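Hi,

I'm pasting everything inline rather than attaching a file, because the server keeps stripping attachments. The sequence lines come first, and each chain or strand is labelled.
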Amino acid sequence: MKIVVVGGGAAGLGAAGAALGVDPSANMVVYTQFEDVAYSPCGIPFVHGKEIESFDRLFLATKQQYQDQGIDVHYTTTVEAIDVKRNVIKVAGEGEVSYDKLVLATGWNYRDPEGPGGDLKGIYRVKNIQRAREWDSYLDTVKSAVVVECGLIAVEMVTALVHRGIKVTVVDPGPWPMAEVVDPDIVDPVRAGWAEAGVTMMWGEQVTAFGGDGSLSYVDTTGGRIEAQLAIIGTRKVPNSDLARDAGIALGGTGGIIVDSRMRTSAPNVFAAGDCTEIPHGVSGVSLQGLSGSHAYAQGKTAGINAAGGVRQYDPVYVPWAMLAGEWMIGGVSFGETTASALGMNYVSGVAKGITRARYYPGVKPITVKLLADPNTRCLIGAQMVGGEGVKERADFLATAVRAGITIDDLATMENVYSPAIGALNEPVQMAALAVQQNMRR
Amino acid sequence: MSFSRWLRTNSQQYLLADAQQRIGRRNGITVYGKPRSLKDCFWRYIFVPTYKIMPDGLRQGLIRAMPGSHRQAWPKQSARPRPRHLFAGSDRKD
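And the predicted assembly:
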């Protein structure tokens, strides 16, 4: 069986490896338009910020290792078209290539910020590791930078640029950082930390043009002109699904490829995974696009197993997430108040401020937990957190709680670890659940 | 851009903006943003209020009617609330 994968990110390589696990005799070919496969683009800001010493550390495996696994990767090769009726793809420089099963893992792009001057030198879209190597030395020459909208990678880039001694201005049409996913009370410590670090923030403003003579020297915004030699594009992720659309494969309202739980598309023998697809949310049923690398990898494995003749189902998502933002960790699960409110969901929330270790233990950090529950079923439907540590583990736990239909009463009576160096007597999740119970009685 | 993508993009943007205004106000943040165009006026003053007064069932029905992965075959959500454990509860009878 010949399985062709288009895309060499987490979903594409996850699909290739999992397919070979089911059928080791499969002829496995991966096409990528880039020079490398399977690295962590989310790690790029940390190399720029000097927390990680080298871009080489971001690779999951060497090119030789993929070859040894039996994965034939065609680098810097563009797939131009798919003929789903004849089971062939058209590859630049190779002509027509047939497949028995095809997996699309074409990933995402930044939404175009739509202003004149977008092609000037000095406008950086953090994604490709080879370009990141080139940009890293350019950063040494930059005195002032503008971050255009606060996507997740852009938030990490703010910290990286501050670490490099670059003056940063954030321009975002939202009213606070990451306003599409985070509530204002949760992200407020991050905003305050940025202000303390000298970051200029322009909320509710938009970039209207990039200007300069060949290279960027200023950015025009609805709030005025900013002198800058660098612009970081942090607009939201949009699916790279043009190849699928042109082949007549059905797309959803997000622009992502429509898939079922086995990652099958509307075309026979064609699967899709990762950021080019859309996946339904477990609570609301609304399809979502632009999830995390761990989602892409798990979807890729599902697509690969099914493409190779195995059976695996992928579940609707509850989206645990967490990240470092300045000196803080922020994260959550499913809904915050802003997103739940936007959808028109009925919820009751509760907030608790706690600590991550015993109050006397060195390194103890504050943590704030907000929980949202459905007042009819009393089930947990979402959470948001900000703290000095322990956010990721709580987000993973709470996502499982939402998925399992755990109620706020279960959480209010939960058992918890007390150990001075790693956990406080009162667990902040339990305290937040008690606050939700109290608010439900009102 | 397809109709469904156009509808999703705009409805998401304006419903979020409306929610940000309300949640922001509750947290002491004044969210500015006067309508800049006729399009802004339509989505803010006609679509958003209409969406908000719709009965929940109708709203969910309309969301489900839009093309997307949510209309494909997916594992069902576990029971809400989850069934009580066999050994839990005061009404247990041995």
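Residues 55 and 436 of chain A are 44 Å apart (CA to CA).

If the labels don't parse on your end, tell me and I'll reformat.
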